[in-house]
Amino acid sequence: MNIVSSVSSAIERFHDVKSTMNLQKLVDDVSFGLDIFEFRYLEADGIIRNSMFKEEIGTVLTSKSFIETLQGERRISSFFFEVRDYVDVMSIYYPIYSNNKLIGIIDLAVDMSEYDLTKSLINNAAILHRQTDILNLLKAINGSITNSITILNKTDINDFLHAYIDTAKDIKQISIVNNEDKIFISSSKYLIGKKLTDEDSPKPGMNMIDGELTYLTVVNSHLFDDNYLTKLMLLTDATNYAHHEKQLLTTALITSIIALLFALFTSRLIYYTAIEQSRKERERLEELVSIRTKEIELLSKTDELTGLWNRRYLEESLDTEFKRAKRYNHDISIMMIDLDHFKHINDTYGHMAGDEVLRQMSSRIKGCQRETDFVARYGGEEIVVILPETDIKTATEIADTILKSIAKEPVLFESFTIEVTTSIGISNMSPEHLNYSMIFAEADEALYSAKANGRNRVEVYNKKI
């Protein structure tokens, strides 16, 4: 029974190594920048084999979205948005194939709480970049799974058992019998497929086989599946047992050690192969995610219509530039630009024409900016320019250049020719300014004066005494 116990442990360990892959570590290693909400690896029939939640391993996934995907209501490997545990997530069921056969499915959900899912996110650039990163992660997991399966498939349990008994001289044969009394795994391959009830099969207990006294042990077990009863059949040399009982115990210990070493070697082979692959994939994804992060950061600071910086980034930059100028006692000027009669353009030619006017005017303003200037859309048709290290005289010259550039040529939209002019207000920092809001308000007041004085002109803030 000591030998039976050690053999059972060896086979169970072999099966555990062959059926379990530490995908969660791979996910942790390569999921840079992705807030993963749920991760599972399922067999093709929906049984969960790997999960962030250990308690659900071995159960069947029965979520509505998974069933819909299996039934063909949703294309597998496509992204979709749903709510899981009251959290908005972007989900995907990603198939794993081996030799064109579906062998598994990855269930991956990423936290999307920062987005408003009531709006259409189909063409959202940040979402599209995130989906690209998710697909790269899934490809890395796919490679790890198929690589591990390839390695493990080369390690046949029948060969394992044959090698096992070669190392233990007192063990003659190891076989596993199914519930139909048919041998389906054996160290002696010629026995595979035979039934225990066959006349030439040895009977439990002492037997004389090929002139040697042997002992056949048959015990019930749940190898491979706790719900599936199998029998472990062990044939040992009874001669040594009869004369050297202690030697049998030593053999049991040696075989247990060999089994453990073999299982450890197999698991290390899988582990280090997966780790090396994940390391290479991690390095590639690190570079990719770094690029994606910069792109997403840029998108979060950019106005979608005009390509200028957006209001949020404008306010951050105003605060930073004002503090820098204040600290070092340097010049800084603020320019407020507003397109004249923009509402009339929208009402007359339509909002699409208005959008085109904004795009072209923004392009002309950017064409007049210097390398250190900062141009942002404040809102509607209002554009703000921050001019660091710039006195009021230079700021006025730049404003005149912008004014002429905008009025120089009309905007052509479909069959329309749209004349566009602008009004510009400028203010320069002075010692009494305590924050950027004060100089910003002055530029706005100067803009109001430009409009009141006839539009298509530049006005510098004039402090009232």
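(the above was protein one; protein two follows)
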Amino acid sequence: MPNREATDPEEVKALADIEAYGCHILYVLEEGDLAPFAYSVGIEHNFGAPEFVVIGLKPEISQSIINEYCRRVHSGEVFEPGQRTSGFVKDFDCQFDAVHIEHYPEHFGWDLWFYDGPDFRVVQLIFPTTEGIWPWDAEADDWFRAWQPLLDTAPASQA
């Protein structure tokens, strides 16, 4: 494990979870127009696979999806950016995409702490609507695009 010094009870719990379960999961509540999201800490350290983020789902669903990812990479399964796969969101294929490093400070503070900087990878699980529409499809409405922002490119600069 990286040489992490736990200075508060939350850090102690995070390190214990990473050791016991392979990862620690953080859920960030929605704030204003920003969708809630959940992400992992420790998966790359333990299994050599990228950390994982899912955006726009309820806490229980997000946690279940991240645990499934952790279980599958622990068993040796490899997920590549652009790959579609099943078994994460009921009855739907989902797609993996790499997260651009410029999103790390806003989204992955605990990973930055754990890895002592941005030397880790993250993949985002992207899911379609129940009608099979992906966020990048022309038919996707503005709400769906905002509720599941794609993190594969650098954020638009704020002028």
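Reviewer note on protein two: The chain is about 30% helix and 20% strand.
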